[in-house]
Design brief:
The structure holds two protein chains of two kinds. Chain A is an alpha+beta fold. Chain A is about 40% helix and about 20% strand. Chain A folds into three domains: about 290 residues, no CATH class; about 120 residues, no CATH class; about 60 residues, Arc Repressor Mutant, subunit A. Chain A is built from 16 helices and 15 strands. In chain A, the strands form four sheets. In chain A, strands 5-6-9-1-10-11-12-13 form an eight-stranded mixed β-sheet. A three-stranded antiparallel β-sheet of chain A has the order 4-3-14, with no helix packed on it. In chain A, helix 13 crosses helix 15 and helix 13 packs across helix 16. The longest helix of chain A is centred in the middle third of the chain and has 20 residues. The radius of gyration of chain A is 30 Å and the shape is elongated. Chain A starts with a helix and ends with a helix. In chain A, about 40% of the residues are buried. Chain B folds into two domains: about 325 residues, Amidase signature (AS) enzymes (Alpha-Beta Complex), CATH 3.90.1300.10; about 80 residues, no CATH class. Chain B has an eleven-stranded mixed β-sheet with strand order 1-3-2-4-6-5-10-11-9-7-8, sandwiched between helices. The chains are: A alpha+beta, B alpha/beta. At the A-B interface, loops of A face helix 9 of B.
């Protein structure tokens, strides 16, 4: 695909994201939702679709959906209904999925994303509650299929966007932002490996300037940010190639193969099911009283966008640092705890967290919540930078030791004798020795070669094993070398 | 002792005239003697005797409830823990329920003795009990005739004194129509009055369980146990349950009875019309005011019902797929084969017909014309009932257009069969309660009088029915050979 091609075509993307709600029990039964249990041990007669059983709506799932709706500024339906979506599949026990069709619980809302420093608003058409299906296991059963119904009845919130995204990059930004939001709201653990956050992408292209949308294809069930970008890009190229050859796009559902990095046809529109939606007579309409709505609104946590704005203003952080620090609620809390406890400059705290700490966490593939160094211990370290007990360089050494142990920064500094030399006479003695031992370099410096100054600083730091206060060293060196 | 009503039996048990074990044995013997009726699918003899022993203990300890020790039976649509629950279908012929329906739990807690599971039309789809996988049930009044359906086993067993009382379920008339054809008392409560949990669904927005007994007094005793909110059924009502026996003897002076002119047309058998007129005269004598009313949308009830009920059924019956329980075809070659043969081999024709009708009515392009239209009609019919019941206390009319018809007479003509429920179906669409009580005999076959009341006015219906039974003998008649 040439650059010129991209200029000629406009990409249109809409996403449907299924996020698993973090309720204790299933959406219509009392069975547990925990992941990874032995097959079919977390499915009760309701989840198994036994004759005579009835669904009872989990009110916690409703609250979570409403919470999400409030966070995206959406209309919350005062009256919404559940419908049956009918199709046969062995991991769908009742032969229908309880979902919402007309009158979903969350109506029109929006989410602001940022791509290459530019802000953009993505419309959200709706979000509705539904139950998940079970799992079909095609391996290990000698030509038969195993069915695990542990996941059947797990609550999902399906979030449908408007076709507002114009590149794979925007789609990823939207998906990340949504992922961040559901975790902020604590309505989902967002675990993508476990399928708690997965995405269907609707992709089409149209000649730039054309009003009408092109024919779209839907890529199903992608559960990583990397794959969504690759899958969309592959699909866009495929569309453009077909259209430029004078061909037509077939409306169909496709699967992304991450190994081959390609999409392939799953079923065409003609093969699509007629789901025969109709209101589920076993469930009453969901009524959201104004009092409940007000209560949920009042309990809403500070959302990522306003937190980011506050961080920029309150802590004087640049956009990038504020973005990183507010990308997860736990990380933002970590930062604020450190600032508060360390009495250290917020920018230094930010640099240390986004640099050393996140670097180490990344390397160890750990989330902030699982950090071996707690916010309290980390604050203890930065406190010693702030009061000049140690230099930044020594602090890195202390941090490494803290990562390996349970010790406080103070204990490590004391045990290893790392506190800065504040005794000026000791520094002076080192400087005098160095000047005496290096007459050539002294000559060079005095004749105007300023670069040699760094040599002297290096020598002092080396001799003091990094414990001399750099600012004091600079000051005294300059005076002595005059 | 088996000729007695529940109320009389409860007294006999308390007075020590007989024990629950003796009573249970007497009924078990009768069930065996009259197996020709085919009213039972499963007889739970051992469990019944155990329950009877436990009941006798309770009676001796003095903490018995009105139903303690009374032998009853459940329509085979109610799930019973550890006992086959077939719903009259081959597809559940091997299904042992792993839990009890709420109604069953309540009867157990009350100390009632369950004699077994009663025959019924397959998945409660039928008006003659001929669609049962276990064969037709015979009407004790005439063994060549149907007992009605779908609760035909329940009606026949109560009429023949094989049980003191039974449960039934009513989606379009399945309690009232067989009660009428077998000369017993049947009550379909307000939708939501009795929990549907564990009652295998046919049409969820219409299904309602209720008692089938010899008298209104007995129906009050059974309903008292069955009624009430169930957290396991979101559509059950949390309205307080009144004492249904307390108001049975309230006088009917000034009772306003409405007779919809749409019920009394030329379509109604003239002898039945005359029987009903005589029954209504009895009410007049008791001081009731009779008034003709009009319910203009009743004629649309059958077409609306035959969209809504099959639509819901088509989804409700999808779970019978041969995967987790019930019948599975032998050696399926692939998934489609597993589905089509399991369902094809194990569902009967009437069930297949309704699944197809329902699937069609919900299909893309037809939904608005059928399902939505039917829902609109349903609302209009509900309005008719609300308007009428704002004017009168109860509505009366026929239950069936004819008395019990011959086995095989209508089984090949679904439309004729569907028309057997012409007077009962509208009540389910509106969700109001209604009863059928014996009102006379035509050619030695029972005729039922239908009494329809306002939402949650079961106590009023039972009162109105009970007063009739104080001045008429019809509920005391037994079919010849079953006295």
């Amino acid at each position: 695909m040439s650059y010129a091609d991209e200029q000629d075509w406009e990409v249109v993307i809409g996403l449907e994201i299924h996020t698993q709600l973090a309720t204790q029990s299933k959406i219509f039964s009392g069975a547990a939702t925990a992941y990874g249990a032995e097959p079919n041990t977390q499915a009760c007669t309701v989840d198994l679709g036994f004759p005579g059983v009835l669904p009872v709506l989990n009110q916690e799932a409703v609250r979570m959906a409403v919470k999400f709706g409030c966070a995206i500024d959406a209309e919350i339906a005062p009256y919404s209904i559940f419908a049956r979506k009918n199709y046969f599949y062995p991991d769908l026990p009742k032969g229908y999925q309880i979902s919402q069709m007309d009158l979903p619980i969350v109506g029109k809302g929006h989410l602001d994303i940022e791509v290459d420093g530019e802000s953009k608003r993505v419309g959200i058409t709706r979000a509705h509650l539904e139950e998940d299906a079970g799992k079909s296991l095609h391996e290990d059963f000698h030509g038969l299929t195993g069915i695990d119904l542990n996941r059947a009845g797990t609550p999902l919130l399906e979030i449908v966007s408007e076709p507002d995204m114009r590149s794979a990059k925007e789609a990823v930004a939207y998906m990340r932002k949504l992922h961040e939001l559901v975790r902020y709201l604590e309505i989902s653990d967002g675990n993508m490996q476990e399928g708690s956050f997965r995405c269907d992408a609707n992709v089409s292209v149209r000649p730039r300037g054309q009003q009408q949308f092109g024919t779209r294809t839907e890529i199903k069930n992608i559960n990583s940010f990397r794959f969504i970008e690759k899958a969309i890009n592959y699909e866009v190229e495929r569309h453009i190639e077909i259209l430029e050859r004078g061909g037509k796009i077939t409306q169909e559902t496709r699967l992304y193969d991450s190994v081959k990095d390609e999409t392939r046809s799953m079923r065409s529109k003609e093969e699509a099911n007629d789901y025969r939606y109709f209101p589920d007579p076993d469930l009453l309409p969901v009524m959201i009283a104004p009092e409940l709505l007000a209560e949920i609104k009042s309990q809403l946590p500070e959302l990522p966008s306003s937190k980011k704005q506050r961080f920029k203003e309150q802590y004087q952080l640049d956009n990038e640092s504020a973005t990183i620090l507010t990308s997860a609620r736990e990380l933002a809390d970590f930062f604020e705890t450190v600032v508060k406890l360390s009495a250290c400059d917020a920018k230094i705290c930010s640099n240390w967290i986004t640099g050393e700490l996140l670097g180490a966490l990344n390397k160890a593939s750990l989330e902030i919540a699982a950090s071996p160094v707690s916010a309290e211990r980390f604050a203890g370290l930065l406190q010693r930078i702030a009061d000049n007990t140690i230099s930044g360089k020594i602090a890195k050494q202390v941090f490494e030791a803290m990562w390996q142990s349970e010790e406080s920064a103070d204990a490590i500094i004391a045990a290893q004798g790392l506190q800065q030399i504040t005794d000026m006479s000791a520094i002076e003695a080192i400087i005098d020795t160095i000047i005496a031992d290096n007459p050539g370099q002294v000559e060079q410096y005095r004749s105007g070669k300023d670069k040699v100054f760094a040599f002297f600083v290096g020598q002092v730091m080396k001799q003091s094993q990094g414990k001399a206060n750099p600012a004091e060293v600079n000051k005294m060196l300059k005076a002595k070398l005059q | 002792m088996y000729q007695q009503t529940i109320a009389q039996l409860a007294l006999g048990l308390r007075q020590g005239t007989f024990t629950s074990v003796e009573l249970t044995q007497a009924y078990l013997t009768r069930i065996k003697q009259h197996s020709e009726l085919n009213s039972f699918i499963t007889v739970t003899e051992e469990q019944a005797l155990q329950a009877a022993k436990a009941a006798d203990l309770r009676l001796a300890q003095g903490n018995a409830e009105p139903l303690t020790g009374i032998p009853l039976a459940q329509k085979d649509i109610f799930c019973t823990l550890g006992v086959k629950t077939s719903c009259g279908s081959k597809i559940l012929d091997n299904f042992i329920a792993p839990y009890n329906a709420t109604v069953v739990e309540k009867f157990n807690a009350a100390g009632a003795v369950m004699l077994g599971k009663l025959n019924m039309d397959e998945f409660a789809m039928g008006s003659s009990n001929e669609t049962s996988f276990y064969g037709a049930v015979k009407n004790p009044w005439d063994l060549n005739c149907v007992p009605g359906g779908s609760s035909g086993g329940s009606a026949a067993a109560v009429a023949a004194h094989l049980v003191a009382g039974a449960t039934g379920t009513d989606t379009g008339g399945s309690i009232r129509q067989p009660a009428a054809l077998c000369g017993i008392t049947g009550l379909k409560p307000t939708y939501g009055r009795v929990s549907r949990y564990g009652m295998i669904a046919y049409a969820s927005s219409l299904d309602q369980g209720g008692p089938m007994t010899r008298t209104a007094e007995d129906a009050a005793i059974m309903l008292q146990v069955m009624a009430g909110f169930d957290p396991k059924d979101s559509t059950s009502s949390d309205q307080a349950v009144p004492d249904y026996s307390a108001s049975l003897n309230a006088p009917l002076q000034g009772l306003k009875i409405g007779l919809p002119k749409e019920f009394f047309t030329a379509d109604l058998d003239s002898e039945i019309a005359a029987t009903l007129a005589a029954a209504i005269d009895e009410y007049r004598k008791m001081g009731a005011e009779i008034k003709e009313i009009s319910m203009p949308n009743l004629n649309m009830a059958i077409p609306a019902y035959y969209i809504i009920a099959p639509a819901e059924a088509s989804a409700n019956l999808s779970r019978f797929d041969g995967v987790r329980f019930g019948y599975r075809c032998s050696n399926p070659v692939d998934l489609t084969d597993l589905y089509t043969r399991s369902r094809g081999e194990a569902f009967g024709n009437e069930v297949k017909r309704r699944i197809l009708i329902g699937t069609y009515a919900l299909s893309a392009g037809y939904y608005d014309a059928y399902y939505l239209k039917a829902q609109k009609i349903r609302r209009l019919i509900s309005e008719d009932f609300k308007n009428a019941l704002a004017e009168v206390d109860v509505i009366m009319g026929p239950v069936t257009p004819s008395t019990a018809f011959a086995i095989g007479e209508k089984s090949n003509d679904p439309i004729q069969m569907y028309l057997s429920d012409i007077y009962t179906i509208a009540i389910n669409l509106a969700g109001v309660p209604a009863m059928s009580i014996p009102a006379g005999l035509v050619n030695n076959k029972p005729v039922g009088l239908q009494i329809i009341g306002n939402y949650f006015a079961e106590a009023k219906l039972l009162n109105v029915a009970h007063q009739f039974q104080q001045v008429t003998p019809w509920h005391q008649h037994s079919p010849k050979g079953f006295e």
